Amino acid sequence: MGFILSGAGAGGLILSPVIRALLSSVGGRWTLRIYAGLNLIAGLPTAWAVPRSQFAASSTVGGPERHNTHVSRTLASRPTFLFSAVAALLQAAGAQLPLSFIASYTVSLGLSASKGSNLLAASNAINAVSRVLTGYAGDRLGRQNALVLTLFLAASSVFAFWLSSVLITTSSSLSLWLAFIVFYSFSAGGYYALFPAVIAEIFGIRQYAAVNAFMLFVRGLGAIMGGPVGGQLLGSSEEGNRAYADIAYWDGALLMGATLCCVGVRWAHGKGMGWKWIA
């Protein structure tokens, strides 16, 4: 799973400079058209090659029978499900905020927009490696343990490095910002690599399709919420890098909330199934 999901980070590494070059040469509209075409070219063969789902209808004497892929009331009322849903919402709202503002915050520190684009590409490269390594760590330390740890480190990096870079108006602001990009990009990859496996571990493979689909829906709501609110919190350009202070507070609060919810998942699952240190 980690190897498969690392492709998202590798794609960001490649596409970030490519999209910037396209924006400079053909403009925004044609850049979107080209990007849509690339998605279509890559998506159609992938969709065709995907094997038949194990949750698809199976033939019986009475006719085709389809496994239930809906979230039942019993499932939705479980503490593990509720904590997981809130964690998915908060993590999706906060995870993409730093990536959205890497280029603009880099410019506010006095660097060029091309340097900001390069830092975004570097962030995606680190994230790709992280997804593989955290998946390996989850196999050794327990997936739930590794998930909580990586989320906590991601939230801590926002307060320790990004917020410090915003509030400290000295030459060390850039150093703190670079440290944040490295530390956050590595720790933030853990959620993407581990959460699907955690769902299967907690709810079982028979419930995986229903739970995962609902979590993806909730993550979509979180993505809609996080970015626009962050944009509203952005201060005026006259404030310089201090214009990003409220965004850093907002992002750190979202990720720390997601961490606490994953701790709740760990607690609820341990209470119901018996506590294990490696889980």
Concise description?
By secondary structure, this protein is an all-alpha fold. The chain has helices at residues 2-25, 27-49, 73-76, 79-95, 97-108, 113-141, 143-167, 172-203, 208-233, 245-273, and strands at residues 58-60, 63-65.
Structure report:
The chain is mainly α. Helix content is 79%, strand content 2%. A two-stranded antiparallel ribbon has the order 1-2. The longest helix is centred in the C-terminal third of the chain and has 32 residues, at 172-203.
Judging from the principal axes of the Cα atoms, what is the shape?
A: globular
Number of helices: 10
Strand order of the largest sheet: 1-2
User: How large a portion of the residues is in β-strands, by DSSP E?
Assistant: under 5%
Low-confidence stretches: none
Arithmetic mean of pLDDT: 86
Straight-line N-to-C gap? 17 Å
How large, in whole angstroms, is the Cα Rg? 21 Å
The profile of the biggest β sheet is: 2 strands, antiparallel
Structural class: mainly alpha
Number of strands: 2
The H/E string reads HHEEHHHHHHHH
> How much helical structure, as a percent, in the residues?
over 70%
What key attributes describe this structure?
279 residues; mainly alpha; globular
What layout of secondary structure does this protein have?
Blueprint: H1 2-25, H2 27-49, E1 58-60, E2 63-65, H3 73-76, H4 79-95, H5 97-108, H6 113-141, H7 143-167, H8 172-203, H9 208-233, H10 245-273
Antiparallel strand pairs: 1-2
Helix pairs in contact: 1-2, 1-6, 4-9, 4-10, 5-6, 6-7, 6-8, 7-8, 7-10, 9-10
